[in-house]
Amino acid sequence: METNTTTPCSSSVTVRRNPRRKARDTPLFSTSRLPSQSTSSSDLPQISSFPFQDILSEKIQQNSPTIITATSPSPPQHSVLENLKVYLRIRPLVPLKGSTKNAGEQNEKWRQKNVWPQNLSKKNSVKEKKISKKKSNESCITVSEDFRSVTLLPPPPLQETKRIKSEVFEGFSYVFSAESTQSEVFEKMVNPLVEDFLGGKSGMLAALGPTGSGKTHTVFGSPREPGMVPLTLKRIFKSAQGCDSQSSRRFYLSIFEICAERGKAERICDLSSDKPDLSMQQSAIKGLLEVPIHDVAEAELLIARALLKRSTATTNANSQSSRSQCIINIRGGSEIADVETDEQSNSAVLSIVDLAGAEREKRTGNQGARLAESNFINNTSMVFGLCLRSLFEHQKNPKKALQKHFQNSLLTRYLRDYLEGKKRMTLILTVKSGEDDYIDASYLLRQASPYMKIKFTNTEPQPNLLCNKRQLQATSKAEQSKRMKLVKFDASMMERKIVGHENRLPDEGDLTSCSADFKCSTPIKLNSDDLKKERTHQIMQSFAKALWNVLKQYNEKLKVAESENQILRENLRNEKKRSIEMEKELKNLRSCCTCSKDNLMATTIVKVGENFESMVHSELQTSCGIDEEKLDLDSSDHVKSECSSSPRKFECTPGDDQRNKKCSGEKGNPSPSQKQDMCSEVLNQNIPSNLSGPECIDEEQEHEAMVRSLETDASSPSTCVPNDNYQSSQIHESSPGTGNIHEDLSELNNVVTERLDHKSCITVRNSSNESSTYVQPGCQLGENDEIGDSLELLVSLKDVEPTQKQDHVDVPDSGIRPNISCNSSKKEKPKRRLLPKSSVLVREISTCDADEFDKPKGSGGGKNLAASGRQRTQGSISLLRLLKSNLHL
Ligand SMILES: Nc1ncnc2c1ncn2[C@@H]1O[C@H](COP(=O)(O)OP(=O)(O)OP(=O)(O)O)[C@@H](O)[C@H]1O
C-alpha cells in the first residue's frame, strides 16, 4: 500500500525551481583538470609569441610612393557610424591686436567706430556708458580645460530679473577660444576633412552662428588671417606639388550664393561667372561653372572675385554682414577618369558653406530690404536647423519619420545628402562672448546641442579615383583587363620615372588580387600623411596576419587537447567498468567465504589428499615395486581399513644442506621420487627456527601463528623424540596380503617421517605455486591445501605440541576426505590453508597410547579423536602404529 508523501498543503505555494545550472568550465580550468601525467602536453604545438616588435618596427620609406589598391586600406565606410563633428569658435571681443589687458577698451573703441548707426546723442553720458560697456564687455562664455565644453554665464541683470542660471554645453569636438588662430582652427577642424577629400571622400564644412560672430572671418578670413578656404587650397596644392600628381589629379572650384533679394524668391547666383541665376534640379545646380584651378594663387584670385559679387550689407551688428548663403565647392578629379568617363561621378567634393547669420531685429536695426533679407536668412537658418533636428530625432527614434524640411529652402535642398546623414558634415558654430551676445549665443548653443549626437552612415560610394563601380559595371571584362594592364604599366612606368630604384614595387599578389575581384588599383603618390596612414595600415595588416596565425596555432592545440581529453575519458570509463567488476567479484568472494567456510575447508582437504595419494601412488610404483593394479585409490576407506594392520617404516636418507636449499627454493615440478628425496634431505637438516625469515614462506603466517599457539600449549615434550636423523621414504610392508595398504602407505609416502630438534624448522617447497605444507614432527601430520604438484613442508620441533590442545585447529576428518572427493575441488580453488593431514597424523601418533593400538577399533581412543567424535579405523590404527614404531615415539 502506497502512501502519498507529497500531500499538498492548501496554504503553501509550490515553487518549482529549475535545477541549478552548472557553470561551464573555462578552457583553462578544464585543462587544469587534465592529469598532470599527460605526456602529450609536450606534444602539443608550441604557440609562438606574438610578434609585436616585428610588426611595430615596420617602416615605410617617406619618399617612396605607395600604390593604393582596391585591397588597400580603405576603411569600411559602409558600416562606419560617425558622429557629426561640431566645433565652437568664440569670437574675441575685440580684434587681437595686442595684449589682452585692455582688450575691453579696444573692443569698445572698435565698436564705436564700426557699429552703425552710432548714437551720438548719448555722448554726454560717457561715464555711465563706460560703466555699462565695461559690464557688457565681460565674457559670458567660459571654456573648459579640455576644450570640449563651455559654460554660458548670463549677465547679472538677467540673473536677477529672470533668474537665469549658467548653462553648460558640452560634447563639442573642440572649442576654439577667442585666442585661437586661423591656422589652429584649420589644423584641428578642416585638415581632417581635407585629408579625406584628398583620399577621395566628400565632405562639408558649414559655419553657423549669429550675425557678426565671425563665420565669414573663419571661412574666408582676411589677407592677414586667411580663413579655411585659402588654407584648404594651400593644403591641397601643397600636397599635390609634393607628390607631383598634377598629371593625375585636377581640382575644380565652384562658388555660388543663395540669396533672396528684397524678400522675393530665393535664387542661386554663380559668383564665378556672369551667368544669370541658376536653377536647381533635385540636389544639383544646373549650369554651375566649375573652374579648374592649378595653383593657390589662381584659386584665391577666383575666390576674391567671387566675394566681391557676394551680397553683403552693413548692419548694426556687422559692418559687412553677409546677406546670402555662400557655398564653395572644391572638386578633385583625375585626368584618366576625366578622359574616359564622367567627370562628376568619380571625384570627391569638399564643400565649405558660409551661412548668413541669424539676425535679431533689435540688434541689427534692419528695416525694409534689410529686414526682408533678415527674414530670408533667419528662415534658411531655421530650416537648416530643422533638418538637423529632424535627422537627430529620426536617428533617436527610427519610428519617427525624417521630416522633409530640406524642401523649404534651396540651401537645404542642395545640402540634402548632408542633412539626411548620407554624407559627412562638420559644423562650426561661431558665437560672440560679450554679455550683450548672451541671448544669441544661448539660442545657438541650445539649438545645436542635439546636433552633436547625430550620426552619419557614410554610405557614399568610395570615389577612389579609378575605382568607380558604375564605371566598372559599364565596361566589359575585356576592357577591364585592358585597363588593369594599363594601370600596371602606368604604375611601373611612374615608379621608374619618379622615384627610380628606391621605389617599392607593388606585390604581384596585390595586383592579381586586385584583378581578381576587379577593384582596380591606381598608382598614387602619397604625401607624408598618407605614408603615415599607409604605415598604420600595414602595421594593422601585419597584426591581423600575426593574430590569425596565433589563432590557428591555438586552434590546433585545442584540437589536440580535445582528442587527448577524449582518450582520457575512455580510459576513465574502462577503469570504472573494471572497478565495478572487481567489486562484484569481491562481493561474491565474501559471500562464499562467509557462507561456505566449512565446505571450502573440506574441499581443500580433499584436494590435498588427492595430491598426496597421487604422489604416493606414483612413488610406490617406482620405489617400492608395487603394481599399480593393486592400488585402489578410489576406495580410501577401504585402504585405511586395510592399512590399519600394516606396519610402515620411513627411512630418511641423509642429505646435505645445499639440497635442502635447493628443495626449498625450487619451483619446478619434480617427480614424486624427486620430491621424496628432497623431502628426505630436507628433513635431515637442522634448520634454525628463525629460517622463517627469507626462506620460510611469508604467506603461511596463519600456520605459523597456529604453530606458535601450539608451542605454548606444549605440555608433554616426551611425545616428540628428538633425533638428529630422519628416516623416510622407505616403506616396509609388515602385513603381506593386504595389497590396498599401499594406498594408505601412499598417503604417507610423502609425509615425512622425521625427527627434528625442538628448535629446528624446515621448510620444503617443491611447487610451482605458492602452497605449502607444514609438518610438526611427532605431533601432527596432515595434508596441505596444496593444489597441483606443490608440496611444502614445514617441520619445526620447536613447534611440537600435544595435539590434545589443538582442537581449535580445523583438523580434517580423514574419513570424510575421500567422500567429498574432487567434485568441489575441481570447481573452485581453495581459499584457505588448512592443516595438513600429516600434522593431523602426527598429532594422532603423539596422542595414541599403546593400548589404543591394541584395540581393533579406535573408538574413543584419543582425546582428540574422542573430542571430534571420530572413530579411528583399523587401517589408521595400524598406520599409526607403524609410524610410531619407526619414529621411535
Ligand atoms: N576670430 C576673429 N578674430 C578677429 N576678428 C574677427 C574674428 N571673428 C570675426 N571677426 C571680425 O568680426 C567682424 C564680423 O565678422 P564676420 O563678418 O565674419 O561675421 P559673420 O558671422 O560673418 O556675420 P554675418 O553673418 O553677418 O556675415 C569682422 O570684421 C571680422 O573681422
Features:
31 helices; ATP-binding; 889 residues; three-stranded antiparallel β-sheet; coiled coil; microtubule motor activity; 2 domains; alpha+beta; Kinesin motor domain-containing protein; binds adenosine-5'-triphosphate; Kinesin; disordered N terminus
Short description:
With 889 residues, the protein is α+β, with helices and mostly antiparallel strands. Helices cover 43% and strands 13% of the residues. The longest helix has 68 residues, at 528-595.
Report on the architecture of this protein.
With 889 residues, the protein is an alpha+beta fold. β11 and β12 form a beta hairpin. α20 (597-624) packs across α25 (741-749), α21 (636-643) crosses α25 and α21 (636-643) packs across α31. The two termini are 74 Å apart. The N terminus is likely disordered. The structure holds adenosine-5'-triphosphate (ATP). Residues 91-92, 95, 209, 211-217, 318, 320-322, 356-357, 430 line the site of adenosine-5'-triphosphate. Adenosine-5'-triphosphate (ATP) is lined by residues 91-92, 95, 209, 211-217, 318, 320-322, 356-357, 430. GO terms for molecular function: ATP binding; ATP hydrolysis activity; microtubule binding; microtubule motor activity. Belongs to the TRAFAC class myosin-kinesin ATPase superfamily. Kinesin family.
Q: Which CATH architecture of the largest domain is right?
A: 3-Layer(aba) Sandwich
Indicate the overall shape. elongated
* Rg over C-alpha atoms, rounded to the nearest angstrom: 60 Å
Number of H- or I-type helical stretches: 31
Please identify the top-level CATH class of the largest domain: Alpha Beta
Q: In angstroms, what separates the terminal alpha carbons?
A: 74 Å
Unique bound compounds:
adenosine-5'-triphosphate
Low-confidence stretches: 1-17, 25-42, 61-79, 96-104, 114-118, 120-135, 337-345, 461-476, 487-525, 623-670, 682-699, 713-825, ...
CATH superfamily assignment of the largest domain?
Kinesin motor domain
Query: What share of residues is helical?
Result: 40-55%
Name the beta content range: 5-15%
Task: Specify the oligomeric state.
Answer: single chain
Helix-strand makeup class = alpha+beta
